[in-house]
Amino acid sequence: MGWSHGLLFAALLITAAAIHGAQAYAMVSGYVFCDQCKDGQISLFDYPIYGMKVRVTCVDSNGQTTMSREETTNLFGNYVMRFDGTPNLSNCFAQVSSGSEQGSTGCGAAAGPAQNLRLMFSMFDMEMYSVDSLLTQPAQPMSFCPKSANPVSPPATPTTPPAPVTPSTPPAPVTPSTPPAPVTRPISPPPFRLPPMPRFPPLPPLPHLPPMPPMPFVEATACPHQSWAMPEYKCYWRALNQDTKVAVAFGPLAARRYGTDVTLWQGLQGRGDLYRTLLREATTALLNSYNSLQFPYNSVSVVTHMNYALMDSPRSALLTAFRFMRANSGSGNVTCKFTPCK
C-alpha cells in the first residue's frame, strides 16, 4: 500500500509540473465570526457570519496603500480573494470593512482588530495565505451573555443632614421609656431520631461492561482512503454514513459534477480521472476531519475548498486534491490509528 501511495504522489507532482505554465496567482482565505458578547474572542456564543465585507490592504514601507481588495463572506462565514500574478503580500492585512451590516442584523456595528496575512503554502507559482479569524460585533452584548465578574456598584445615596436646633425653642421633655417585657423561652421538644435502618443483603457485583470502541477523536490521526474503505474499520464512520450522497455532503456544485446518486462509499473508489481523484481525497479528508480534532482541515473548510476547486480550473482541482492527499497521509508526521472494530 505504501509504494502505491508514493507512486500516486509522484504522478500528481508530474501532472502539476506539466501545467506549470499556467498563470501564477496568490489566494487569501479566512473566516469572520459574530462576537455576540463583545469579549474580543471566539466563544461558545459566537458563529460564522454571512454577507460581511472584508478588505485586504497592502502598504509599503512608508505606510502608503499600494493595493486593496474587498470580498464578501459566504454562507459559512468564509471569504477567498485571488490576486493574479505574483504580488508581494508580506505587508498586507485583512479587516472587516466598517459599516458592513449585510450579515446578521445588528452584528456589524463595530469591527474587531485587523489581522496580518500568513503564508501557508507556496508551490508551482501559487501561494496560499491564511488569516486569523476576524470579528464583528453588535452595538451591545446580547442579553444571554455572561455578566461581568466585577459589576460596578451603584453610587451611595447621600444622607440628609439633621435640621439645626433653634435656640428659642425649648427642648421637648424626655418621656421615660417603658422597660422591655421579659422574654419567655419556649420549651424545646426532644430531638427527633430516625429509627435504625434495617440491614439489607449486599448487592451482587455489576457485570463487566464490554470494551469501548477506539476513540482517536482527541488525538492526532490521519488515514488514507484505502483504510476508510476496509470493512474492519466501518465503526469509524460515525458522523457520516457510507450511503450518504455526495450531493448532500458537498452541496449543489458536487451534484452538478458527480450527479445526485453517487454515495460517499462510491466516491472513495474514484481513480483514473482528475475530478474522481479530487472526490476521493475530499471524501477522505471529510471523514478524517470528523474523526480527529487535530486534523489540518475541519469539516467546513473541507467542503469550502472542495467547492472552490470545482468552480476553478483543473489546475486548482489538482492542487486541492494534492493538498487533501498530503493531509490524509499525515504529512509525514501523523499515522493512522485505526484498530479493527469488534
Automatic annotation (TrEMBL):
The family database entries (InterPro entries) matched by this protein are listed as:
Protodermal_1
| Keywords, ordered alphabetically | Signal
Q: Which domain of life is it from?
A: Eukaryota
Q: Is Ubl conjugation a UniProt keyword of this protein?
A: no
UniProt lists compositionally biased (Pro residues) regions at 152-189
Q: Where is this region: Disordered?
A: 145-189
Coiled-coil region(s) at which residues?
none
Kindly indicate where the leader peptide sits in this chain. Answer: 1-24
**What is the recorded name of this protein?**
Uncharacterized protein
What is the originating organism of this protein? Citrus sinensis (Sweet orange)
